[in-house]
Structure formats: C-alpha cells, structure tokens
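User: Could you check the structure of this?
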Amino acid sequence: MSAPVAPARPTRLSLAVRDSSTMLRRNLLHARRYPSLTLNLLLTPVMLLLLFVYVFGDVMSAGIGGGGADRSEYIAYLVPGILLMTIGSTLVGTAVSVSNDMTEGIIARFRTMAIHRGSVLIGHVIGSVVQAVMSVVLVGAVAVAIGFRSTDASALEWIAAFGLLTLFALAFTWIAVGMGMISPSAEAASNNALPLVFLPLISSAFVPVDAMPGWFQPIAEYQPFTPTIETLRGLLLGTGIGHNGWLTVVWCLVLAALGYRWSKAVFNRDPK
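Assistant: Sure, the predicted structure tokens are below.
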C-alpha cells in the first residue's frame, strides 16, 4: 500500500489571506454592534448637504452661475465634494477603532499569537474602506432624493468614479490607521482625525477655487481633496478634468504608501 500523502502546508500568502479575512470579519462585527458611531459620523455630510442646498442653495447657485443658475445646478456642483467629505467622516471612526485596539491591549495579544502580523492592519483597512463605500452610497442616495442627477456620465465613467472613491478611501484609511495607532486614547484619535473631516471645507467642494480670495487659493488648490473633487465632477458631470486626474492618482498612491509604512512601523514597534 502506498503511504498516505501528507496535506500540503499552507503558503505564506494563503495564511495572510486567511488571517486578514478573520480580522476583517472581526472589524465588521464591531461596526455592526456599535452602529451609533457610524451614524453620528454620517450626520455631518448629510446635514451639510441639506444645509447648503436648502438654506444657501439659491444664493450659492446664483453666485456660481453669474445670477442665472438654479438650485439643481448647485446640487450637481456640491455632491462630489460631499461624497469625499463622507469618506473623511468615516475616517474618524477608523482612527477611534484602531486606538481602542491599541489601548485595550488586544494588539499586544495579537503580537503574541501565531497569525500574520500584517493581517491586523489589513483587516482594519479593508473593513474601513467597505464602511466608507457603503456610507458614500447612503449619502449618494440622499443626494439623488433631493435632486442630484448625472445624465451625461457613461457606464465606464461611473465605474471610474467608483474606483476613484475607493482608491481615495484606501489612501486616507491608511493615514487614519496611523493616527489611531499613535493616539493614547479614543478621544485623542478622534481629535487627530478631525483635519480629514475639515480639509474639504477649504477645497473646491462648495465654491470654485477662483472665487476665493487670492491669498487663500493656493491653500485650496494644493491639497488632495480639490483635484479629487474636480476629477469626480468631470466623471459624473462631464466637466473638464485636465491635470486633476493624474494629480489625484499621485496623491492617493503617495498617501497610501506613506500611511502603510507609518502604520507598519508603529505596529512593529516594541511596546513600552
């Protein structure tokens, strides 16, 4: 009789995928058990959307359109920026979640277990990106309900817009993970991540850059939100994209690489 064949040993890649999937399920379960944090963070972009449409909409649309625009045009202009602000809001929850893991000792426990070390971070990142995309869909549904339409975008442009939002969420999630890992408490993590929420306020999300004061325009122009918003407008509304497309990709890749290296370095650091 032939000797029984020993089962193949799992590869490093398969172990990484298995452990990352486990950590992803853990983070999604946490999000499901504590939905109030996600809902509270969603209120900011939804309230800003309703505020600027129904309170400031007529004035803002008249100013942007030279006195002849209507509210529907301003809704179309506003929504891409609000979608990116939605991603920024979910990043606060990411930083808080990571900080809780760091301060409650579970990360120290994971370090002693026979699991792929990167799976802890990957689980957080993928789970956060999934939540960010779901939040964008929910806010997008609110935008459609109040009048947003994108009749000129083709199926390919919609796919590109979805990919752009996902890439943007991935890049900034790595930054939020790093912020959470260096924060001594959940409150500190929330405060550290707040610039990611307010940065869209000084971008082209609400008014064009050339309508801002001259000294303020470089602040609004040379940051990642403005080219991403303009690229998203070009894909959904048919406006010109110009150099904003490749600027957006460069910003996302650089931020993702920096956030990954930062988070990995902090995670691998010996606990004090």
